[in-house]
Amino acid sequence: MTDIPLLKSRLPGLRIEDHPTLVRQKSRDFFWYSPVLKRQLDHLTADCVIFVRTIEDVVEALAACYALGVPVTPRGAGTGNYGQAMPLAGGAILDLSGMDKVLSIAPGRIVAEAGAVIADIDRRCQAQSGQELRLHPSTAKTATIGGFVAGGSGGVGSISWGGLRDFGNIIRLKVVTMEAEPRLLDLQGEDLHKVSHAYGTNGIIVECEMPLAPAYDWIDVIVGFDTLGAAAAFANNLGEADGILKKQLAVVAAPAAHDCFNRHRRWLPRDKHVACAMVAPQGYDAFLTLARRDKGAQLLFSSHDLPAPERKGLPEIYELGWNHTTLRALKVDPAITYLQTLYPFPNQLALVDKLHALFGDEVVAHLEFVRFDGRITCFGLPLVRFTTEARLDEIVRIHEEAGVPVFNPHRYTLEEGGMKQTDAAQLAFKREADPKGLLNPGKMIAWDDPGYDYASGRTYLFKGMQQAAE
Amino acid sequence: MTDIPLLKSRLPGLRIEDHPTLVRQKSRDFFWYSPVLKRQLDHLTADCVIFVRTIEDVVEALAACYALGVPVTPRGAGTGNYGQAMPLAGGAILDLSGMDKVLSIAPGRIVAEAGAVIADIDRRCQAQSGQELRLHPSTAKTATIGGFVAGGSGGVGSISWGGLRDFGNIIRLKVVTMEAEPRLLDLQGEDLHKVSHAYGTNGIIVECEMPLAPAYDWIDVIVGFDTLGAAAAFANNLGEADGILKKQLAVVAAPAAHDCFNRHRRWLPRDKHVACAMVAPQGYDAFLTLARRDKGAQLLFSSHDLPAPERKGLPEIYELGWNHTTLRALKVDPAITYLQTLYPFPNQLALVDKLHALFGDEVVAHLEFVRFDGRITCFGLPLVRFTTEARLDEIVRIHEEAGVPVFNPHRYTLEEGGMKQTDAAQLAFKREADPKGLLNPGKMIAWDDPGYDYASGRTYLFKGMQQAAE
Fold first, then answer.
1. Given B108, B168, B285, which is nearest A188 (Cβ)?
2. What start-end ranges are recorded for coiled-coil regions in this protein (chains A, B) (predicted)?
3. What is the DSSP string of B406-426?
């Protein structure tokens, strides 16, 4: 149990809260999307919350916690789904949301503090320079850029730019280590892998330099199809249409689109499988041409044709995608949960059909098309009717046996989640940056279990540092 | 033979020149890159040149030529290599270079007259809005946008955006038909195929609306390798790196880079196969990281590290690519000619190696990496040591038998060039737009030979209109 009076006395300049209601509120992220994580993590709470506003605050806070042996779990807005911000060992939540300044905007790049909210960054960039971030999660309106880099993998924009794991999608990070005298590291290139998608286990991200893309008045469209296969094939075609700039491209199987997208429901017949996309206005005519070529396609919704008053109150299309699809399904049916899967190129369409046939209503297809290693393919974020944990594990196994790797959102460790591969290089860096193992403890198996075999053959989105460099 | 006094009397407001030197100069494009076309077309000349400055001028000129039965061959800057601007049947050259106005610039799009020079468009867009054209030929400094649309296929920018055949890379075209009363057509969507890459056989393009991309201070880099295979693999990797924005990405085999790129020669060891790229500054660190990962890669040249005085006089990297590579080789050795080939995904690297081994020094590899149907692959524009036309045809056949389609730049018809597939729909449009067959006569086999089988199985870059729509 953290000695809070002592901690406060060491950090007289910082706001530290220990009111249980507030601490519990700040000790929760969106882990509850998973019934498994909900069972495992729901009771957890930190002992206090430290609010920081500057890099110096972070350095001070980490030095004091290091001296006192207080575990530190960093937190942005707490919108992660894999439990990245859940404090497994009590201690302090380090709330970075006060570090929210945009520091500079230039052609193609922005520097912002880690706690800056993504939508705020985009508003600033759009107003000042007609630019916006390449990538953001569907939670852009609340999520912070630092939290995204620390635990996101991609999202809106990935159809054009790939994911955060791809070099070039993060330019530079400033990171504070947790040592007797915390150091401020400036990481670029290969070193970005030390902290990207590491849940803050290897240092606290305090500043992010990110690439920008041009901001357009993206047009939201929904196209309907009689079969899931037809919707997926259309989305794949649209994805592969190199001349049509897209920001988002998803497919949701019937009847989930109608049932879950309540504000758009009047446009969505219940039996239609839909492709939802954001298209740059200069490519809208080309998009319509492609849609007309597809005999099975029916344009159900287009923000281009909608009078402004009717657009009011409608969520943007990206807020029907990624984990917002899951969220909307959960609101309709609390028994719904989800998976995160990868349909490997070039068999993505056949595999989508195969799994759809295999599971029927138990696993409702939700596909997110992306650029992946230079090709178009799709992730799955299927809506799963949850019965038991054993059945959920079985559904995971059936996917993997079919050749569809699962990044299991019902596991809170980096390795079991499947996003981040740890290795000796990663571990060596953690020994330097967090020698006492106080940063977000319990999230990296390789740290806690010296016998852990990180050389396993499974698919990781963020490859181990050594493997990546070889 | 054109009755020039009569034509002049019908077009009192237009400048019409018939001085043989001027007419011959305006009757030539870059057809002479091909020894075959040089033999076939070198003697050709039109009878006169009509200079136009407005759409009304074009309408008047076409009406008069229609009435008098004068063939009309449109011309921008005459930088095409397939003989697109060569007048096969005398008549008039319609010089559109006076129609050079930029009409409007908006986020993501520009409208320009057909005769506007591409580099001028880019300068205007860059200055006014930080934007530039997505695609341009290596001849951007002289080529016109209309000529590019009428006979180009892609080029600089294709590594990010694909080609002109891809929907979205041309937004809208205004075209004047050649009838008793010429019509001004506004073509979008499916209809763009009527005139894109049709050499002006289906109407005269007078205005182009094109998509724009953000303009960056692109960094020119050249990376050296000991083997062609290593250079091609690196370029393919860089192409597939979704987070690294590129504008140009080519590979040139040793010793051609050293021998032909004279201004860059001091950086280029003769035995190095090179990858030449333009990288966005926000991706430069990521590019360096990728290059460092490749044990065989050696950064030979980077404009990033070059003091401004040393950059003076150096051509931009894109002027070492596409047909500028051919041009530079031709200057060194007039016996060089070239081919244009496609290495189909996913076997591009194996096929590059195979053909390199097959031909040795007779066919020196020059690869241009592009996005093609949503994947990264490469075109070949190999430097061919020309001996006889029979051997050239044999080299073409060997490529095609190996699974590498050739868009034969030693043929001046649309069909034999292999870029443009004609079909009944295309032909029906030509019947409407050019009922007398006076537009660029002799370039469309399907028009001249009613028995022509346009359903052949060969690979066309611009698919027939019917096939595309099916």
1. B285
2. none
3. B--TT--SHHHHTSB---HHH
